[in-house]
């Protein structure tokens, strides 16, 4: 029963086959997200009786995301989850995070007095109309378009977009991350983020479905980002870094990357804001069409 394994590349195909069965919009239902941040959330996976269980552990204790079965069996999977928490984690209480609304409603209706259920605003993902980001059209994105146009005007003939695929280019990106962090307080978040990016780049030959793009100015990489498909019509942008001293560079990498690499997707998930005020302000400024709500479910 406790035959769970650290999430690594050996589980990629299996996990993707389960995620393809559901229409959850949250970034946690993506192999890349769970793989990137495995070292911070200590995420593990187990396949049992045609069901995939994903667990994590942090300072708050053990938790699970929603189990995914090849056939929808929420009641049975919840009973199995109860056994796993008791036997494997020595816990009498089930804890679930990143729970989609439809599953939270199921729990509320079927087990009205067994669980505490609440929304976790800091973990809501930001969903955008992809065409709006590719064109920066409309009044609400007028300021972004002005910044983008100023960038193009100032650096015309000096900037170049490239898809990053080589070790030298990845080293350029890691160097940019170090430069980006120079004037910031080095905390766990920055270190963890760098480890996650290094992990992706180190094994990039096994992540060819992940697109990495960057903007060079006068031959020097000044912005990069990477993303992969979350659903057939939705791309998930996992990370974006740019030299903050170059006006309009963030709107430029955002727009150009989508235009070059994801010309036909309908939606862009740019993940959550971690409860950080500046990050929340930045994500809201791009006028999301939806905040993907996530719930926490804790057994009483």
From TrEMBL:
Q: SUPFAM superfamilies in the record, alphabetically?
A: Acyl-CoA N-acyltransferases (Nat) (SSF55729)
Q: Boundaries of each Phosphatidylglycerol lysyltransferase C-terminal domain copy?
A: 21-297
- Pfam name, any one: LPG_synthase_C
List the signal peptide residues.
Answer: none
Quote the protein name from its UniProt record: PF09924 family protein
Q: Which organism is it from?
A: Peptoanaerobacter stomatis
From the broadest rank down, the organism's phylogenetic lineage runs: Bacteria, Bacillati, Bacillota, Clostridia, Peptostreptococcales
